[in-house]
Design brief:
- The chain is α+β, with helices and mostly antiparallel strands and 410 residues long.
- It is built from 12 helices and 8 strands.
- The strands form 2 sheets. Strands 1-4-5-8 form a 4-stranded mixed sheet.
- A hairpin with a 2-residue loop joins strand 2 and strand 3.
- The longest helix has 30 residues.
């Protein structure tokens, strides 16, 4: 595996490092991740979003956004390895685009692979610069794990689609300008075939965004309702009734993005410090738990190394995104459980009364996000069985039945 920089990549890394040192503050251990703090207010989240948007705009203006994207779409025309190098350097600074970076990683490939040329030239530079902020309008109350069961419908009326339905668990919708929207455009086709992907303007009359308050006090998730919302037909990404291909591209990138996220060894060190403060550093059970946390982080690092080696070699990664996503989610859940056990009675405290401002408590309460968000672990395990282990597909009688003939529970 090639994991060392070439001379050209070394020069690029030095250039990136110098620019970051001139424009951002180095990250220190006292810096807290807003998404893991319990009790943060909507005002604090909005302020965090604006900081993220400003940083993404700064990256774009300086030529550090969309590094492997074609120049004509606002990128730099380099390789994915260059983007990876920049991300590695940026991770050591107190600078982030937050969830904006995630939507760029999801929407960008959809437009690059399936969009028309005029769509790419118009939307991609605005996406990279955060002039337009996007959200992902996929999941519905009855279409989460089985996304192809979606029921938000779009009916053609002249040159417009008229959209009615509901989406849920939409991150950042209250801040978004646009959304990548999956709709049921042809109920006479089987469930996977009658879906179209649209570009929806969140500010259009008839769109209502309702924030959902999570058990950590966060309001980053939303319900989004569509009532007779008109979307021009030319805002379809890809073919009419061919939106499942766009969805697959987006979801594949989402799994890899989630599975490759990590805080490295910082949390291992923090857990060891908790064990020492609790007087349990010599407890053999605790030591075994800490060893498992360390091994999990090491396995994730090796997964990323395989991914990095593939990127540097210009070939497709040889590790399935679902494998990385499931392992990351379960490793995170175990780590948070260990932390609360080490906190003991202090785990019942909250906010400023709790050690480390309740960061571990917030992480524990939020852990289902990892096993549900981006596709449940159960669905990903099915994918691993079929794609990686080459097991037979599960019997599905609904694959060839017109969607309108499927039995529903509502």
């Amino acid at each position: 595996m090639r994991i060392q920089d070439t001379p050209e990549e070394q020069a690029f890394r030095a250039e990136a490092r110098a620019w970051l040192e001139a424009n951002a503050r180095p990250l220190c251990d006292a810096d807290a991740d807003l998404s893991r703090l319990r009790g943060h207010s909507p005002e604090a989240e909005a302020a965090h979003f604006e900081r993220c948007r400003a940083w993404q705009s700064t990256l774009y203006q300086a030529g550090w956004a969309g590094i492997p994207w074609p120049v004509e779409y606002g990128g730099r025309g380099l390789t994915p390895a260059h983007q990876m190098i920049f991300n590695q350097e940026q991770a050591t600074f107190d600078a982030t685009s937050g969830f904006i970076a995630s939507t760029i990683a999801l929407v960008g490939p959809a437009l690059l692979n399936h969009g028309r040329e005029d769509q790419r030239r118009h939307y991609l530079p605005r996406l990279l610069s955060a002039e337009d902020v996007w959200c992902q309008l996929f999941s519905e109350p009855d279409a989460g794990s089985d996304l192809a069961n979606l029921r938000t419908r779009a009916e053609l009326d002249g040159q417009d689609f008229v959209v009615n339905g509901q989406k849920v668990w939409t991150t950042g919708a209250q801040y978004a300008d646009l959304g990548i929207l999956l709709v049921r455009s042809n109920p006479d086709l089987p469930k996977h075939a009658g879906i179209t992907c649209l570009i929806a303007d969140i500010r259009t009359p008839g769109v209502e965004v309702r924030p959902l308050v999570t058990n950590t006090g966060g309001v980053h998730f939303n319900e989004v309702f569509f009532r007779d919302v008109r979307v021009p037909r030319d805002r379809a990404i890809g073919d009419l009734d061919g939106g499942w291909a766009v969805a697959r591209t987006t979801l594949a990138n989402e799994s890899v993005m989630i599975g490759t996220s990590s805080v490295g060894t910082r949390d291992v060190d923090r857990l060891a410090a908790l064990a020492r403060r609790a007087g349990r550093a010599d407890d053999p059970v605790v030591r075994q738990q800490l060893a498992r946390v360390f091994v999990n982080e090491r396995i994730l690092a090796l997964f990323r190394a395989r991914m990095e080696a593939a990127v540097r070699s210009g070939r497709m990664p040889d590790i399935d995104g679902s494998v990385m996503k499931v392992f990351w989610a379960e490793a995170r859940a175990f780590k948070d459980q260990v932390a609360l056990e080490l906190l003991g009675d202090d785990a019942l405290l909250d906010g400023d009364d709790a050690p480390e401002h309740g960061e571990w408590q917030g992480a524990f309460l939020d852990f289902p996000m990892g096993t549900i968000g981006g596709g449940t672990s159960e669905v990903h395990r099915n994918g691993i069985g079929e794609r990686v282990l080459q097991l037979p597909r599960e019997p599905r009688e609904d694959r060839s039945v017109p969607f309108r003939e499927l039995k529903t529970t509502t």
